[in-house]
Fold this sequence. Notes:
- The protein has 46 residues and is mainly alpha-helical.
- It contains three helices and no strands.
- The longest helix is centred in the middle third of the chain and has 16 residues, at 20-35.
- The radius of gyration is 10 Å and the shape is globular.
- Residues 1-21 are annotated as: Disordered.
Amino acid sequence: MGPVAMLRPPPGTSSQTQPDGRFRLFSFPFWARAAGHRPFPRAPAR
Length: 46
């Protein structure tokens, strides 16, 4: 389970987090810190 899994959950999972965009915002800073990056290095999600 890498940061990519949290950043882009499968289409079936997005249903759980209503707006998948919100899920990314909350997970972004979390996995970003674990990876050793800043909370918002360059918004790779976009």
